[in-house]
Amino acid sequence: MLDWFGVDDVWERPRPGVGRQDVVLAVSVAAISLLALELVRSAGGFEQTDVAVWAQWLAVASGAALLLGRRRWPLAVALLAAGHMFVAGVTMPQVMGQASLQIVYFLALLSGVAWARDRRAMVITVSVIVLFMFAWIGWQFAVGSAAQDWVDEEMGTERIGLFPQIPAAVAITLVVNAIYFGGAIVGGGVSWRAARQRHRLQEQAATIAGQASRLREQAVVDERLRIARELHDVVAHGVSAMGIQAGAARRVLDRDPDAARTALANVEEASRDAVAQMRGLLGTLREGAGENGAREPGGTRTTDAGVRDLPGLVAEVGDEGLTVSLDVVEAREGAADRLPRGIGLAVFRTVQEALTNVRRHSTADAASVVVRIDEAVSYAEVEVVDNGRPRHGTSGSGLGQLGIRERAATHDGQVDIGPRVTGGYRVRVRYPLGGRP
């Protein structure tokens, strides 16, 4: 039982100050209680009460005022409410028995259990209150039995039911008060445990959010490290190509000037392509690790992959249960082979990430991959379409799509990602050819 009330629990429920809702509650209860008091008086309910009207008003108003501090000073308010009940019950029992004051006492005791930070002090305080109240009821029961004996001996009254009248009335009072105080104590305990549970859920949510943030940052760092490796490969490839062409030009410069000019033109073209790709990759890295990033679906290093490697990727995905069709549409034969190395790799990675998302987060059983290359209008477009719906419970982190958008931005590409009106999901990216201006 003590564990249920959290006696040994280290958590302390935060106690708010006296706020607007406390004032509204106290004023509303006071207004309703005074109105009910006057209605009962007008109906002749206080004919046997000799206490002055102002004292009755004071008792009702002071009881409602206790609700102002029920959350800020819960145990003090519970003790004051118990004292108020005793004094009012002795001096003006008909006023104390009004429903409005009974609600005040109930809320005061419930708040003492629900908002007390020192749970051991709460148990002691509530126990003292309950024992005192039941001692008072026991005293009334003893007096009631003596009065009934005196009435039986002197007046010769007859019993109406199985029990004497006065003890029966006191016994009813005992049962009602047991339910009354028990309900307040149990309700307060339930409120405190619910608050503790909400606090734990908030802590867990904060922990999960922190872990997700760290995983996201780690994924961004991994993605940028991979782009850095690609940058190294781009520069190394370009420099190697320029070195080979420059060496060839040097050897034939005297005997074949035309061949030397061709080699030097190739050096110029290779240098421009390498610089354009290097600028794009550096622009992505320069955004910082705090920006959106993406993770590589597979753990292998595929910096040399391109459009011609897509059939192997599609076959690998097909072996995992997803039917994938691949179409490479070239306006001119061999256009895929003439794609800049960075664009070809971007197309491959876009298809790789899109198919990974289909496998993990969609109900689709089929997908189509279409790559369109038109050198006349200078673009390369890749489109991945599936026939499924989002799978429940697999929303993912969104890093895959962010990676697609980031890579497209590196090459000034345009991205269109989202569900189709006719069903399924589409990922379409168009890369301009020619590099950055």
TrEMBL record:
<dbReference type="InterPro" id="IPR003594">
    <property type="entry name" value="HATPase_dom"/>
</dbReference>
<keyword id="KW-0597">Phosphoprotein</keyword>
<feature type="transmembrane region" description="Helical">
    <location>
        <begin position="123"/>
        <end position="142"/>
    </location>
</feature>
<feature type="region of interest" description="Disordered">
    <location>
        <begin position="287"/>
        <end position="306"/>
    </location>
</feature>
<feature type="transmembrane region" description="Helical">
    <location>
        <begin position="75"/>
        <end position="93"/>
    </location>
</feature>
<keyword id="KW-0902">Two-component regulatory system</keyword>
<dbReference type="InterPro" id="IPR036890">
    <property type="entry name" value="HATPase_C_sf"/>
</dbReference>
<dbReference type="Pfam" id="PF07730">
    <property type="entry name" value="HisKA_3"/>
</dbReference>
<feature type="transmembrane region" description="Helical">
    <location>
        <begin position="51"/>
        <end position="68"/>
    </location>
</feature>
<keyword id="KW-0547">Nucleotide-binding</keyword>
<keyword id="KW-0418">Kinase</keyword>
<feature type="transmembrane region" description="Helical">
    <location>
        <begin position="162"/>
        <end position="190"/>
    </location>
</feature>
<feature type="domain" description="Histidine kinase/HSP90-like ATPase">
    <location>
        <begin position="346"/>
        <end position="433"/>
    </location>
</feature>
<protein>
    <recommendedName>
        <fullName>histidine kinase</fullName>
        <ecNumber>2.7.13.3</ecNumber>
    </recommendedName>
</protein>
<feature type="domain" description="Signal transduction histidine kinase subgroup 3 dimerisation and phosphoacceptor">
    <location>
        <begin position="223"/>
        <end position="288"/>
    </location>
</feature>
<feature type="transmembrane region" description="Helical">
    <location>
        <begin position="99"/>
        <end position="116"/>
    </location>
</feature>
<keyword id="KW-0067">ATP-binding</keyword>
<dbReference type="Pfam" id="PF02518">
    <property type="entry name" value="HATPase_c"/>
</dbReference>
<keyword id="KW-0472">Membrane</keyword>
<keyword id="KW-1133">Transmembrane helix</keyword>
<dbReference type="InterPro" id="IPR011712">
    <property type="entry name" value="Sig_transdc_His_kin_sub3_dim/P"/>
</dbReference>
<dbReference type="InterPro" id="IPR050482">
    <property type="entry name" value="Sensor_HK_TwoCompSys"/>
</dbReference>
<keyword id="KW-0812">Transmembrane</keyword>
<keyword id="KW-0808">Transferase</keyword>
